[in-house]
Design a protein that fits this description.
With 222 residues, the protein is of the alpha/beta class. It has a single domain (3-220), classed as 3-Layer(aba) Sandwich (Rossmann fold), CATH 3.40.50. 40% of the residues lie in helices and 20% in strands. The protein has helices at residues 3-14, 43-60, 74-89, 133-146, 169-177, 187-194, 209-220, and strands at 18-24, 30-35, 66-69, 94-98, 111-113, 122-126, 150-158, 181-186. It has a six-stranded mixed β-sheet with strand order 5-4-3-6-7-8, with helices on both faces. A two-stranded antiparallel ribbon has the order 1-2. The longest helix has 18 residues, at 43-60. It starts with a helix and ends with a helix.
Length: 222
């Protein structure tokens, strides 16, 4: 685990964006942990989040020139990531996002922000990946309407769970689109951190969490 990944895992726990207990997921599974993106609700936390995305982008897509965020959750992410990436790379990085509905007045555009050239290298940022359908629709819109190609997808956290067909969501997405998915951290990175002495039986992390998560992953992860 890289330094920025460990710091990000600590950040998630400190901000209680990563919670431990008993949670029913949309899939109906009962999970011993939950990733709650609504914890990033201040200028300070969103700014920090942008720097973690920027670190991941620099590592996996250093030639990136623009960051795209699908509405709605991707909007603050693409903005904060582009600002952080501009600072770290010393290059002026563009950002843009789509509208859910076409604007009927003014510029009447479907995209907001810098409209990149077809030659630019675009990173798509979002919070998590489940079935990936929202991202697929956004990617197809960019390609079919504007001739733009997304080079890679970046998410904050990957649960690395397999679906009913036994395939992980990020793997299924990449197989369908041909676009790689990079997570800042995965649940296995978090597990590694939780096993360190400093995180054993703290207020944020119950003592039983590691064992419960490992048991859960034996069933639902590859």
């Amino acid at each position: 685990m890289k330094k920025y990944q460990k710091e990000f895992a600590e950040f998630l726990i400190d901000e209680r964006a990563l919670q431990f207990g008993r949670f029913e997921l949309k899939s109906g599974r009962i999970s011993p942990y939950f990733f709650n993106t609504s914890a990033f609700n201040s200028g300070n936390t969103v700014e920090k989040l942008g720097y973690f995305y920027a670190e991941a982008i620099l590592r996996h897509l250093p030639q990136c020139t623009s960051v795209f965020g699908p509405a709605y959750k991707g909007i603050p992410l693409c903005l904060s990531s582009a600002i952080a990436l501009t600072h770290l790379s010393k290059k002026d990085i563009g950002y843009f996002f789509d509208r859910k509905e076409k604007k009927a007045h003014g510029d009447q555009g479907l995209l907001v922000g810098k409209i990149p050239l077809k030659t630019e290298v675009i990173a798509l940022v979002d919070d998590v990946i489940t079935d990936g359908q929202t991202k697929i629709e956004a990617i197809e819109k960019l390609k079919n309407w504007f001739g733009l190609r997304v080079s890679a997808v970046f998410v904050a956290f990957d649960r690395l769970e397999k679906n009913d067909e036994g395939i992980q969501a990020s793997q299924a997405f990449s197989e369908k689109t041909g676009i790689p998915v990079h997570a800042i951290i995965t649940i296995y990175d978090v597990l590694s951190l939780l096993k360190e002495e400093s995180f054993k039986d703290t207020d944020q992390v119950p003592e039983s969490s590691v064992e419960e998560i490992e048991s859960y992953l034996k069933i639902y992860s590859n």
